[in-house]
Amino acid sequence: MSENAMDLLKSEAKNLNFYYGEYQALKNINLTVAEKRITALIGPSGCGKSTFLRCFNRMHDLYPGNRYDGQITLYPDDVNILNPKIDPIEVRMRIGMVFQKPNPFPKTIYENVAYGLRVRGISNRRKLDEKVEKALCGAALWNEVKDRLNSLAFNLSGGQQQRLCIARALATDPEMMLFDEPTSALDPIATASIEELIAQLKEQVTILIVTHNMQQAARVSDYTAFMHMGEVVEFADTNTIFTNPSQKRTEDYITGRYG
Amino acid sequence: MTEHLKSSRFAHRRMRHVRERIIESLLFLAAFSSVAITVAIVVILVRESLGFFEHVSIIDFLTDTQWTPLFDDAHYGIMPLVAGTLVTAGVALAVAIPLGTIIAIYLSEFAPHRVREVVKPVLELLDGIPTVVYGYFALLFVTPLLQYFFPELPGFNMLSAGLVMGVMIIPYVSSISEDAMRAVPMHIREGSYAMGATRFQTALRVVTPAAFSGIAAAYILGISRAIGETMIVAVAAGMQPNLTWNPMEPAATITAYIVQVSLGDLPHGSLGYQTIFVAGLTLLLMTLVFNIAGHWLRRRFREVY
């Protein structure tokens, strides 16, 4: 695995296996996530990339019958976030997530962004105002919505809703953000603005992104992992993966021979 | 040969067309019959009520504080019956709405699959109990129980009728609310969990508002059911029209009055006979108001995913 020596390690999956009931969806995954860099997971549908991403915030705990085996370590405190003794809520407090389909809550724009803060027990209006504005600015949405913070989030366009979801995740200052195909439900213009935003966000937060759009991975990410059939076939810096892959399967996929 | 084939194919098509038309007409008739019956009911209620209002002014009807149409000194003030209806319905809703909502939240967001599979049909069974059984349960079990705590409580009272009616309505509220909450897509819940919310926070702050239009529909159905309920109040709340807002007293509701008078032998076309229709019309208008309110709420808060 190639890694830039300058980059700090934020998280690391070691010998990770994951099972949906009897079915093994992830097979012995080893992968590092560099701090304040963008790591992309690519691969054909059903290769396990979303399943892997959702291990990072213990999303699989919501459904019965799922089982993790192995570990995902979060640095700097060196904890295994898959440890059953660790409360998944604690993990989700530190690692935010943006979903495939924009999923704003049936609340106002303001309350959507304030949600994570309220869940953490913050109710001081001044503090909320300040954090909401900062998060909306961070998601490049403030100028578009500052005059209608109290209108329902459903009134926004799809791209705006997705940026609202990014603002919602940013509001609680996560250490790491997970993006699960964040632009697959959006038109090309909204996609471009989200991509630009993600590229900016790496200044402040570590990003792990799943995408089935290879150009997107090539455009925004620093590192890319190619997954196939529940395994990481190849993991390297993005340039290497796209110009000089060492595995035949990776080359076939990125040149469009399957997937 | 080809000529023959062609014509038979056309004949087929015509047959199919005729059959389609017949099916369409049957479907239309089925839909139309429900509308026609509703219109007929309204027409009859209004016509008989107009006959009533030729003898009694609307002002008296709405302001007189007594309803004694069968006495020599007849008074035709609907307010005592309306008050009885609203008080019993109010007591019932004070039971059914909180409990029904809590049950819905539990079943939709917390209960393990197996518990839900058992509890839901059992709850819906409550709905299958004949209302006259509820009525006697209120009169012969709940009232004596309440009298143990409130010795001065009369044998017929709106409180016990309302409480039991509330229990009867719980499945209406909980079942429809639960369906509405379960229809909230999982990715909305996941969004909340991903923010570090607990199950309880997710249920209360995200799922409930997202399902609000369906929950409002459940409440409205419960209200309409409470206002229209007849047997429980007729058996347990007493038959005396009584203008009071105190649930500890006996009083007749609109429905109880209609039962009482319908069972008697009033001459067709008399003023007493017409009071049945005017009471029925009042009841219809009350439920109509709630249904319109419910419709408005549904449209106002409908979420499109």
Note down, in words, how this protein is organized.
Helices cover 34% and strands 26% of the residues of chain A. With 259 residues, chain A is α/β, with parallel strands linked by helices. Chain A has a single domain (9-254), classed as 3-Layer(aba) Sandwich (Rossmann fold). In chain A, the strands form two sheets. Chain A has a six-stranded mixed beta sheet. In chain A, strands 2-1-4-5 form a four-stranded antiparallel beta sheet, with no helix packed on it. In chain A, strand 1 (9-20) and strand 2 form a beta hairpin. In chain A, helix 3 runs parallel beside helix 6 (158-170), helix 4 packs across helix 6 and helix 6 packs parallel to helix 7 (188-201). Chain B has two domains: 2-55; 79-301, Orthogonal Bundle (MetI-like fold). Helices cover 77% and strands 0% of the residues of chain B. The model of chain B has no long low-confidence stretch (mean pLDDT 89). Chain B is an all-alpha fold. Chain B has twelve helices and no strands. In chain B, 40% of the residues are buried. Chain B has helices at residues 2-55, 58-63, 79-110, 113-126, 131-149, 158-182, 186-194, 199-210, 212-228, 231-236, 254-263, 271-301. At the A-B interface, helix 2, helix 3 and helix 6 of A face helix 7 and helix 8 of B.
Set out the fold topology.
The complex is a heterodimer of chains A (259) and B (305).
Chain A: E1 9-20, E2 23-34, E3 38-42, H1 49-53, E4 66-74, E5 79-80, H2 88-94, E6 95-98, H3 109-119, H4 125-138, H5 142-145, H6 158-170, E7 176-180, H7 188-201, E8 206-210, H8 214-220, E9 223-228, E10 231-237, H9 238-243, H10 248-254
Parallel strand pairs in A: 3-8, 3-9, 6-7, 7-8
Antiparallel strand pairs in A: 1-2, 1-4, 4-5, 9-10
Helix pairs in contact in A: 3-4, 3-6, 4-6, 6-7
Chain B: H1 2-55, H2 58-63, H3 79-110, H4 113-126, H5 131-149, H6 158-182, H7 186-194, H8 199-210, H9 212-228, H10 231-236, H11 254-263, H12 271-301
